[in-house]
Amino acid sequence: MGALWHNENPMAAKDIYHDHVRKALEKDGWTITHDPLSLPWGDTGVQIDLGAERLIAAEKGSDKIAVEIKSFLNRSRVNDLENAVGQLRLYRFLLGKQQPERELFLAVSQDVYDSFISEPYVAEFLEAENVRLLIFEAITEEVVTWINWNTTEP
Q1: What is d(CA 10, CA 82) in angstroms, rounded to the nearest whole number?
Q2: For residues 23 and 56, is the Cβ–Cβ distance under 8 A?
Q3: Residue-level pLDDT at 130
Q4: CA–CA dist 69, 37 (Å, integer)
Q5: Cα 35 to chain centroid, rounded
Q6: Is 69's pLDDT higher than 60?
Q7: Residue 141 forms beta bridges with which residues?
Q8: Fewer CB atoms inside 10 Å of the end CB: C or N, the chain?
Q9: Which residues are within 8 A (CB) of 11 and not within 5 positions of it... i.e. 6 or more apart?
Q10: Residue 11 has pLDDT above 50, yes or no
Q11: Domain residues of the chain, as ranges?
């Protein structure tokens, strides 16, 4: 009997913004502790590494976060959003059981935020789903803002 889910390609490509987000977090004073963050699940355990995305974890003082990076470059941003939220639900579930002190964030570029995520209907949905956001500028590799729906700091 196999695991419920297993990543067939443990060397899957990183999201195109992976290194940009990593550098932005480091510039913002975070220490990268896992790249990627692996969480046991089922018989074999699961490394959360879906397709072109990597989950990275960082610490800043006593705060701990996990960051899922999404580029939203497919033809349908709605489909990208559906997939991202599904992944985040799984990650939140696993983190809640194994590392409840770690907050989960979805990292998106400033361009994606401005052109899609900030639309009232999308923002309302993400707030209802309690999807925390890390908005970054890809060119300067800097954190622009954190959206935690209750605060502006993670």
Answers
A1: 23
A2: no
A3: 93
A4: 13
A5: 12
A6: yes
A7: none
A8: N
A9: none
A10: no
A11: 31-57+84-103+135-154
Output the pTM of the full model: 0.82
Q: What pLDDT does residue 151 have? A: 59
Dihedrals phi, psi of 69, to nearest 5 degrees = -100, 130
> Is 18's pLDDT higher than 70?
yes
Do residues 134 and 106 touch, judged by C-beta distance below 8 A?
A: yes
Identify the pLDDT of residue 89.
93
Backbone angles phi, psi at 57, to 5 degrees: -120, 150
Among 8, 97, 94, smallest CA distance to 51 is for: 8
Dig out the tokens for 55 from the structure. 């989950």
Instruction: Give me the amino acid identity at 126.
Output: L
pLDDT of 48 strictly over 60 = no
The pLDDT > 70 percentage for the chain reads: 75
What are the φ and ψ backbone dihedral angles of 39, each rounded to 5 degrees?
-130, 130
Which strand (E) or helix (H) includes residue 126?
helix 120-128
3-class DSSP assignment, residue 47: strand
